[in-house]
From TrEMBL:
Gene Ontology biological-process annotations: cysteine biosynthetic process from serine
Pfam families: CBS (PF00571), PALP (PF00291)
Source organism: Mucilaginibacter terrenus
CDD domains in UniProt: CBS_like
Protein name as catalogued: Pyridoxal-phosphate dependent enzyme
Keywords tagged on the record: CBS domain, Pyridoxal phosphate
Gene3D superfamilies: 3.40.50.1100, CBS-domain
Keyword Coiled coil attached: no
Amino acid sequence: MWYNNILETIGHTPMVKLNKIVKDIPATVLAKIETTNPGNSIKDRMALKMIEDAEASGKLKPGGTIIEGTSGNTGMGLAIAAVIKGYKCIFTSTDKQSKEKFDALRAFGAEVIVCPTNVDPEDPRSYYSVSSRLEREVPNSWKPNQYDNLSNSQAHYEQTGPEIWEQTEGKITHLVVGVGTGGTISGTARYLKEKNPNIQVLGIDTYGSVFKKYKETGEFDKNEIYPYITEGIGEDFLPQNVDFSLIDYFEKVSDKDAALMTREIARKEGIFAGNSTGSAIAGVLQMKDRFKEGDVVVVIFPDHGTRYLGKMYNDDWLRDRGFLKDEKLTARHIIDKKENQEIITIDCEKTVLEAINTIKSLNISQIPVTQKGMVIGKITESDILNSLIENPGIKSQPVKNISTSPFPFVDLNTSIDKISGMINKDNIAVLVEDERGNIEIITQYDIINAISA
């Protein structure tokens, strides 16, 4: 058997029982693995449905341009369908999204316009507003508007809901879904609740988003809105695809818990999933008291981990945000293991001869060059040797005449891996400011000493 094109492979995704990561939950927890769709995400389902419905209604015409605001996954689904059906694509997105997502969209020939995150949806710079303006300006264009286009939720009513019902043999008791556009949770929930109104539908929200408070109070509170890191869930407005009457409860998950859980899923279950999956499983663990023995909990795993390699799966990215404990050696550890000695510097107006004498007397190979106490450059044995060969009389000239770019600065939490990568034949050390404001120098010898200590 074969398929006529890649679009025919969308859907019929597998369901996998989770084990180690949910060992403290008495229920059976099943993951609906949407990464097996051709675009590696659940958004392929609704992207194709929106296009087909627009074609049927005449809104999308042959040779047209699809313009959409997307965090990446919807864009991927639209881009793949556009390749097969002969459309162009222009996508707007926010600067908080991972670079891998944009690279993937461009691989399918799409144009990607990156817009600022921290602006209101009505702001002309927002990715919503820019996509709307482009739709008005580009001839023969169509904007799917995944947030308010009900073909989004209809795709999940027609596909995702029936698949889950069949795969669990109607035994599902809880559905857990991260809520962004609302299409996945609302369409799937509508089908499942028609089959069994007692099924509990649990939405995962993030801090900085309005969904949970709106569900519980009916109030749209702008004070709830602030920038967040988690991708794929939460919003600062109310999409028409979010049917709050179908969602029984919202659980909020922090950026940190979502990011760390994303990694844990790969390490404990061997499933390479994205950031919103981390949110969903963290939410399940936070809600463990809602589940009992005999329950069947289905969690949607919307997209693939490859789109987050530079973020949630990157130790330095996590460490920079304070999400990761210092499991590896860092600049702090290297400084702590060094002998307590004050860093030697030389003022830029001192002579080269004075620099030579300092290097000889202290048996060192490099000196940071300062001006009014600030590090502005460096001088090394090689710099001095090369300068003397060219001009022996340079000994009487100021150090600033032969100093080179300063050693790079790193912070105390920079990993030893990153520091090692920065030290090479052209750059033999890095500088770090300790907690007292003192400047310390780290050389290759210091790294070796810290590792072997």
